[in-house]
Amino acid sequence: MESKLESILGITGSLDEEALLQLFTDKDETTLGHVKSVMSLAEEMGYGINQLGIEFTDEDIEKLRQVALIHDVGKLYTPDQLIKNADNFTLKEYVQMQRHVELNFSFAISERVEELILLAEKHHYRYGGLGYANQSLIEEEIPLIVRMMMNMDAFDAITDPKRAYQQQAKNDVSSLEFAIDIMYDNSQKPNGPSNTIQFDEKCSYALLVGFKNSFENNEEFRNFWLERDKQYFEVRRSYLESQGMEVNLPPIDPVSRYEAIMNKLNSTLDKFNVDSNNINI
């Protein structure tokens, strides 16, 4: 493992995307799928940030993709039993799993990779604080790319049909609609302490703007998310039936689901109050 990683991330390494994805494939298909899906959201996030009047170049988007590529490299060192039991941790296992963001290698790495790692290891920060990995920055102190990653990582995790905590979603709401709600709800100032805010509101808005644009105009993107949405309802149905609970799911044909998701995106985006003047590149 170390020698393979050194050939990719080491000081003479190539940062070979295909080779690193192969290591994820060898380790765990779920982590591989998550990494690839988070990477795929970089373009949507970049589009949304640009719609706020902030220049985010193709080079910036590629940098965001590379951060997404390596953000879970630490899981390559995580014991298999933790990876495969990711929804039923003991407290000790949860603390151990948190350490996947601590990217300390036994070999020298290039300056470029070091820059990416310093961003990637913060992807479990929270905008108001209280994130893990010894969070030392809050709000606009957190680099913009990290704030973007916080949204992208969570959005994909919430919408993954294989993750057990999908059951938090209501009976008639898909995990995708649930994630759209979370992007808004968890970026708003609560009645209590502000350190509980999870996301930068501007980044939540940008992700949903970019998602909506691609969902409307990119057939491949739309089909991927409609299929994931369908898989969620299949998992949900199986869960409800296994618990002897009433199954009351909405129509899941592509046309109905497209309309429901677009309605959710539009109604949620209308609630945001963003100010591009406060974004820190």
Describe it for me?
The relative contact order is 0.13. The radius of gyration is 19 Å and the shape is globular. It is an all-alpha fold and 281 residues long. Helix 2 runs antiparallel to helix 3, helix 3 packs across helix 9 (144-159) and helix 11 crosses helix 12 (219-242). The chain has 13 helices and no strands.
Helix proportion: 55-70%
Unreliable spans are none
Identify the overall geometry. globular
Total beta-strand segments: 0
Quote the beta fraction: under 5%
Mean pLDDT: 85
Computed over alpha carbons, the radius of gyration is 19 Å
Distance between the termini: 35 Å
SSE diagram, text form:
Layout: H1 2-9, H2 17-27, H3 29-40, H4 42-51, H5 58-70, H6 80-84, H7 91-98, H8 111-120, H9 144-159, H10 175-185, H11 201-217, H12 219-242, H13 254-269
Helix pairs in contact: 2-3, 3-5, 3-9, 4-5, 4-11, 5-8, 9-10, 10-13, 11-12, 11-13
